[in-house]
Amino acid sequence: MSVDYPNKKTVQDINVDGKKVFLRVDFNVPIIDGKVSDNERIIAALPTIHYLMLHNAKIIIASHLGRPKGERNPKYSLRPVVKELSELLNKPVIFTEDCLSPETQKTVDNLVDGDIMLLENIRYYPGEEANDDSFARALASLADIYVNDAFGTAHRAHASTAGIAKYLPAVAGFLMEKEVKCLSAALHNPAHPFVSIIGGAKVSDKIQVIENLLNIVDKLLIGGGMANTFLAAQGYNMQNSLVEQERVEWAKQLLATKIANNLLLPVDVIVAKDIDASDVIEVDADKLPEGYMALDVGSKTRQLFGAAIADAKTIIWNGPLGLFEKEAFAKGTFELLKVVADSDAFSIVGGGDSVAAVNQAGLASEISHMSTGGGASLDFLAGKVLPGIAVLNDK
Predict the structure, then answer these.
(1) Where exactly are the structural domains of the chain?
(2) Distance between CA 28 and CA 243 in Å, rounded?
(3) Are 225 and 204 contacting, i.e. CB atoms less than 8 angstroms apart?
(4) Which pLDDT score is estimated for 6?
(5) Residue 106: active-site member
(6) Four-point Cα dihedral 171, 2, 198, 153, nearest 10
(7) Do domains 11-175 and 182-381 have the same CATH topology?
(8) Active-site residue 181, yes or no?
(9) CATH classification of 11-175, choosing from 3.40.50.970, 3.40.50.1260, 2.60.40.420, 3.40.50.300?
(10) Which class would CATH give 182-381?
(11) pTM listed for this prediction
(12) Which residues of 357-380 are buried (b: 16+ CB within 10 A; e: fewer)?
């Protein structure tokens, strides 16, 4: 089953007036030609930043960007984020070239109420991903209060997401609070029928999610490349389709259980000889022509899945149903996203590709909650403990 978090303290439950606040955010945003190309994650953190500014905190922001693997690498510098954040806040943001140095400490000491500073990439330090205690303690020494608003990294037990909470009062920001409330409500107190749509390339990435959700939902719809492994487990020849052979036996065993009655698999698929969409045809899932690969769900499957979604009162979607980046294989994802958007259900969409598809379809305003955490959302749905949430103080 799923982990149920007690009410965690939020930034509203602690006095931040005049205090130095270490704010962990997820500004792991795409940078193209030295500029932020997608600022959604920065925008998601603004409510917490505005609140801290309004309540006269001295704000020390920390984030990672990419995977510099404990070494300083200009490619992963947060410098472009400073400009973007300054423009969004209409206020100068101080940038420090590192996280821990005499110069950084001097900058912190000179902050006045309402000031904002951004530390350079926290993952330039090997102590971050190692959750090194001395590094966590050094980070904590910069501030009076710790606020975690980085749901996207809540599944990581790193120094700035978990270790630091041992040394400071630790509370959630508004984004973290919203993510936990929405996902917890869906998993622990859903309105029924509860339907989940799980897609993406590999079933191995989502085994625990599937197993956990099958005990909770009324219907679990499987699409994307991962559906091929289930279809292969049913004995279908999937030809050149992506199939995780090492997971076929697991899929067979799952399909033999009682909870598999809640599972809906594709009954037909869109196939082609290659992803460049040569010879695109629609066939039943057990009748793939030789040399073809399944790249999207077919029209009968869209109808089957659509009927289940239309009846739902709670919907969780993670992972596209086909290679939606190519128009020839996008119908499954976009048509069914429209059904979700048109429904009266409480809907949650998570995962980078799924969120990108929603934005591409212009349906973001029709989804109840767009989760900012890919791996964190998956771990939450799998019933795992998320260290970045577990360490926060209870009310």
Answers:
(1) 11-175, 182-381
(2) 31
(3) no
(4) 66
(5) no
(6) 30
(7) yes
(8) no
(9) 3.40.50.1260
(10) alpha beta
(11) 0.91
(12) bbeebebeeebebbbbbbbbbbbb
H helix or E strand, kind and range, residue 94: strand 94-96
pLDDT given for residue 7 in this prediction: 86
The pLDDT of residue 62: 98
Question: What does the DSSP 8-state code read for residue 224?
Answer: T
Residue spans of alpha helices (H) in the chain: 40-54, 79-89, 102-109, 126-129, 133-140, 174-188, 207-214, 226-233, 248-255, 299-310, 331-342, 352-361, 374-381, 387-390
The backbone torsions φ and ψ at residue 18, rounded to the nearest 5 degrees and listed phi first, read 75, 0
Of the listed 69, 72, 166, 352, which one is catalytic? 352
User: Is 202 labeled as catalytic in the residue annotation?
Assistant: yes
Phi/psi at 100 (nearest 5 deg)? -135, 105
The residue from 83, 202, 273, 384 that is catalytic is: 202
CA–CA separation, 32 vs 131, rounded Å?
30
- Kindly provide the b/e burial profile for residues 241-274, where b requires at least 16 CB atoms within 10 angstroms of the residue's own CB: bbbbeebbebbeebeeeeeeebbbbbbbbbbbbe
The answer to whether residue 3 scores a pLDDT higher than 80 is no
Please give the structure tokens belonging to residue 18: 């005049």
Q: Of the residues 20, 24, 41, 156, which is catalytic?
A: 41
Name the token pair of 109: 């000491």
Residues 66, 137, 375, 384: which is the catalytic one?
375
If we measure between CA atoms, which residue out of 199, 131, 143, 197 comes closest to residue 168? 143
Residue 49, amino acid: I
Over residues 314-365, the pLDDT tens digits come to 999 999 999 999 999 999 999 999 999 999 999 999 988 899 999 999 999 9
